[in-house]
Specification:
499 residues; alpha/beta; TIM Barrel; Immunoglobulin-like; eight-stranded parallel beta sheet; seven-stranded antiparallel beta sheet; 28 strands; 28% strand
Length: 499
């Protein structure tokens, strides 16, 4: 087998997979494809491959419940349908009233589904982010976890949920490390795997001052990074590890300096959220399930961190994913384009994908899933090893438009133009108040930029249809060139290439 997914040797913001540069992009199911017994992941992966998606994410030891703003998904299985890495043997009943787990007995059904999933994904060329552990967020979610002392027969400590992300309970931490080793050993053979230690690690949890600090959670993360490295040291393959440092619940802050600098990650996963900080500056990347757009902050954070020599994945973007409609899907299309043309990678949860509907709905197929395909095909048509974000080239553009430029100066300019006005819902206005909506109104005008000497071809690309306009020819001579734009709604790409 070819070497595993790695950081591209010619561009540290990229991945290299099977000899080719790769940008990670997906509208993924909600990470429960293996744990949720009725989910027919064969259908899901076939559609993801047809849509040119390059990533999917998979939880190994997490399960949650639906809430008023967090829709039903594959990560919220019915209790009889939940498949854990451990067998339920009893004696006694867990808190979900099924048999207790024996943590010394791996569950053959779980590992059979895991291997079949990874093998199929490998055949399609899809990278799988294997998420080893996760925050448990609250007592009612911690009650579902097989490592909760009430759910297994192995004599673990009884703890409060925040302590799960620390080394305070030594027997529990030993079981977490054993779980990590087991997964890593089982799937070492696959070249299409990247690990994440923990989804959304948090410290300074609300309630008590003695809950684990950020430093404790980061030490826990570092210890488990070490478990992965040590386990793979004598195995054929060494895989990349992605992740983020601990965020702070109180006061809320999602830092990223340690993630890039000192935690030992190969790639950085940031979840787009308010007060995401880097080098002393705060970026409001949007509130959870808010229908906000916040494109400028998203672009600026990507550009600010671009000098860091690690890929940045805007992971699990849930800014509007509970709203399965054209407005929400358009928000995520615009955010995906903004992230990728700022030099990043992008992961969005498509909540239209659930049990018995593994390829989404007809509407999501026509919209967000097709739009992701067009974006993937576009970005991979660029010479990614040489392309970089291009800043300050536009001298003029229409009002209310955010510009994101990416490419190779003098050769290939990809200019993404997006209406950055917020929808009525995000501004506290009635959805039906179209007069005040702003976003979604037609945009026209022109752009002005300077090009080096040479002959160029200009085309427009529609992110909604995946279609290019007929080409026109222009000549660069270092003076300002003014290009008229076709009227567009929401977004448009102008691509200028040297003839």
């Amino acid at each position: 087998m070819s070497s595993v997914l790695r950081i591209h040797p010619k561009n540290p913001k990229l991945f290299e997979f099977r000899g080719k540069p790769l940008v990670l992009l997906t509208a993924t199911e909600h990470y429960g494809a293996v744990m949720n017994r009725p989910f027919r992941f064969e259908r899901y992966l076939a559609d993801a491959a047809e849509k040119r998606m390059t990533l999917t994410r998979l939880f190994m030891l997490f399960r949650e419940l639906q809430t008023s703003i967090n829709p039903y998904s594959t990560c919220k299985p019915e209790t009889p349908d939940y498949i854990a890495p451990f067998e339920r043997t009893g004696p006694g009943r867990a808190l979900d009233q099924e048999l207790k787990y024996d943590l010394d007995h791996p569950n053959p059904e779980f590992f059979d589904r895991l291997h079949r999933f990874l093998s199929l994904a490998s055949g399609y060329g899809i990278v799988v982010e294997v998420v080893l552990l996760s925050n448990t967020y609250a007592p009612h979610i911690w009650e579902l976890n097989p490592l909760n002392a009430h759910n297994n027969i192995n004599g673990l400590e009884e703890i409060e949920w925040p302590d799960y992300l620390s080394q305070r309970p030594p027997r529990l931490f030993a079981r977490q490390a054993a779980h990590v080793r087991k997964i890593v050993e089982e799937i070492n053979r696959y070249d299409n795997v990247i690990y994440e230690i923990c989804n959304e690690p948090g410290g300074r949890a609300p309630g008590r001052a003695d809950h684990p600090s950020l430093e404790e959670v980061n030490q826990w993360l570092s210890a488990l990074i070490g478990v992965v490295r040590q386990t793979e040291a004598d195995l054929p393959n060494q895989h990349l590890i992605a992740g983020q440092e601990a965020f702070s619940y109180e006061p809320w802050q999602q830092g990223s300096d340690l993630s890039f600098d000192s935690l030992g990650y190969d790639a950085i996963n940031m979840h787009p959220l308010p007060n995401t900080t880097y080098k002393g500056k705060s970026y409001d990347l949007g509130a959870f399930m808010s229908k906000q757009l916040t494109l400028r902050a998203l672009r600026d954070y990507g550009l600010a961190t671009y000098a860091e020599s690690k890929p940045l994945n805007q992971d699990e973007d849930n800014i509007a994913s509970q709203y399965k409609d054209a407005d929400a899907w358009t928000i995520h299309r615009k955010r995906a384009w903004t992230v990728l043309l700022s030099g990043g990678h992008y992961d969005y949860i498509d909540f239209s994908i659930v049990n018995y509907c593994e390829t989404g709905t007809p509407e999501s197929q026509r919209n967000i899933r097709s739009w992701m395909k067009y974006l993937s095909e576009f970005i991979h048509s660029v010479d990614l090893t040489r392309a970089r974000p291009l800043v300050g080239l536009l001298q003029e553009q229409p009002p209310n438009v955010l510009e994101v430029l990416f490419g190779i100066e003098g050769e290939d300019y990809c200019i993404y133009l997006a209406d950055e006005r917020e929808l009525a819902a995000a501004r506290g206005l009635p959805d039906g108040d179209h007069k005040e909506r702003g976003a979604g109104q037609p945009i026209s005008g022109h752009i002005t930029l300077g090009l080096p000497d040479g002959d160029y071809q200009v085309v427009c690309f529609d992110p909604k249809t995946g279609l290019y306009s007929p080409a026109i020819q222009i000549q660069g001579d270092h003076s300002a060139i003014r290009l008229a734009l076709p009227e567009f709604i929401h977004d448009l790409v102008v691509r200028i290439t040297r003839s």
